[in-house]
Amino acid sequence: MTTLADPVPGGRPGDVDRATALSGELSGRGVHGVVLGYVDTAGVGRVKTIPTAGLAAAAAWGVGMSPVFDTFLADDSIVTTDVLGSPDGDLRLYPDLDHLVVLAGQPGWAWAPVDRITQEGERHPGCTRTLLRRIVADAERRHGLTFKAAVEVEWAVGQGPSAEGDFVPALSGPAYGAIRQVELSAYTADLLAAFAAQGVDVDQLHPEYAAGQFEVSVGALDPVAAADRSVLVRQTIRAVAGRHGLVVSFAPAVFAEGVGNGGHLHLSAWREGANLHAGGEGRYGMTADAEAFAAGVLAHLPALMAVTAPSPVSYLRLKPSQWAGVFTAWGRETREAAVRVVTGTLGLRDQAANLEVKPVDLAANPYLALGAVIAAGLDGIASAAVLPEEITGDPARLEAQQAAARGVRRLPTSLTEAVAEFREDECLRGALGPVLADAVIAVREGETASVADLDDSGIAAAYRWKY
To answer: pLDDT tens digit string along 255-306?
Structure first.
């Protein structure tokens, strides 16, 4: 269960006593330090670490960190808005003790996600974890809705970067092939053991399409916990790889050509314990609200991509006919559709039915991506949006007249186009609030400018080791 209360100076009720007890327990287990982690606007994980003995003080008073990181780019250069990007000010990082985990891949360390508040004890408008928690709480209060979510994680395993920073796949072999599973079986077995030790339930882990590529699918949680889990999963994948002498890249495109790494979102809406995506009278068992939710996501997808595909390298992955979902289209179990309706197998549909949002990668801040997608879906419910006709097969093969009749159009082909759509989307900018929305625009424009003189290969190389 995710902590629902915002942190306050002096600590949330009971947190200081709990942190004191945890500190002793962790020390007894050989844990010397705690990683306090969050994800910035650019999608980069940032951390402060504390000794285990300092956990109670962190629970009471937080740990200081500059707000300037809200406008850092992936290359650590800094852009500014009218509020963010200066050297002034301080924030406090407060660990969520409900999600503190001993790291199986990093002996001696634990990890906890944080919320950020100001020194005056107010919500920091740039804290995406706090934003997602607020969006989820508002959905329950206004619509009686709760959500289950999960983030797929794809990554490429390498032998190590060359002196030039190139990526050398650890192995090849056919896509989804037994060869790859056998050759990296020691690594992936240790990975499964680490996930189990950390309480991460794994649905499946398998070789993927590209050279050296794997994917892990994990169990669904509430959206804040799902975003936390996405960060923890990547931390674990990287740490266990390092213990095997391997390196990993979560970049949307490791190379300029070929299939890249996705971070597809799975999301289902629930009311009074019932899954709205199953058992209804709409298409494939969806209720009216489930159809409207999907329609809202679909309608806002062009603008959403400034959040879900937030890097110039994202658009090297987003190519037609590569299962990346690059058209405004939906379909049941249609992997070329940007919004895939997953019904689940007969007998499990009341639990398994969900939406998969495909034009998402792991350059995206998972808290921001989930928050924006939920806001888009809620706008669909509020406006009783109508889900258009579904597609089957590859939408790239539709005749122009057929595509227009079904509302199928190409999603943005560059970050510049996505930012232009985001600027015009009052719903999404309103959901994020002016401070965070402006930071999103500034950071995306900064990323675009930083690689303006590079070709596709140069862009892939620039971001290969950033995520």
So the answer is: 999 899 999 999 999 999 999 999 999 999 999 999 999 999 999 999 999 9
Structure-block tokens of residue 420: 């232009």
How many Å separate Cα 119 from the centre of its chain? Answer: 28
Which tokens hold the place of 302?
A: 């062009």
Tracing tokens 């390298």 back to the chain, one arrives at 313
CA–CA distance, 236 with 343 (Å, rounded to integer): 30
CB atoms within 10 A of CB 51: 12
Are the beta carbons of 331 and 364 closer than 8 angstroms? Answer: no
Q: How many CB atoms neighbour CB 42 within 10 A?
A: 28
Question: How many Cα neighbours within 13 Å face the side chain of 90?
Answer: 9
E strands along 272-394, which residues?
274-275, 330-332, 339-342, 354-357
370-405 burial, b at 16+ Cβ within 10 Å, e below that, comes to bbbbbbbbbbbbeeebebbebbeebbbebeeeebee
Arithmetic mean of pLDDT over the chain: 95
* CB-CB contact of 147 with 354 (8 Å): no
Q: CA of 61: how far to CAs of 7, 32, 58, 134, 163, in Å?
A: 9, 20, 5, 22, 43
* Strands in 33-120 per DSSP E: 33-39, 45-51, 63-65, 91-95, 101-102, 109-118
* Residues making up the chain, counted from first to last: 467
Is residue 442 scored above 90 in pLDDT?
yes
Amino acid at 26: L
Determine the pLDDT at residue 398: 86
Q: Which residue is associated with the tokens 């920073």?
A: 165
Q: Is 199 left (phi over 0), alpha (psi -120 to 50) or beta?
A: left
Q: What is the DSSP string of 113-143?
A: EEEEEETTSPBPTT-HHHHHHHHHHHHHHHH
pLDDT > 90 in the chain, percent: 85
- Sorted by sequence, the CB contacts under 8 Å of residue 240 that are 6+ apart come out as 105, 187, 190, 191, 194
Q: Note the pLDDT of residue 189.
A: 97
Whether pLDDT at 2 is above 70: no
CA 263/CA 250 separation, integer angstroms = 9
With a CB cutoff of 8 Å and minimum separation 6, the contacts of 57 are none
Q: With 80 as the cut, is the pLDDT of residue 171 above it?
A: no
pLDDT in tens, 209-267: 988 899 999 999 999 999 999 999 999 999 999 999 999 999 999 999 989 999 999 99
Which pLDDT belongs to residue 29?
Answer: 97
- Contact (Cβ atoms closer than 8 angstroms) between residue 250 and residue 155: yes
**Where in 106-223 does DSSP place strands (E)?**
109-118, 146-151, 153-158, 202-207, 213-218
**Are 39 and 46 within 8 A, CB to CB?**
yes
Q: Using CA atoms, how far apart are residues 56 and 16, in angstroms rounded to an integer?
A: 5
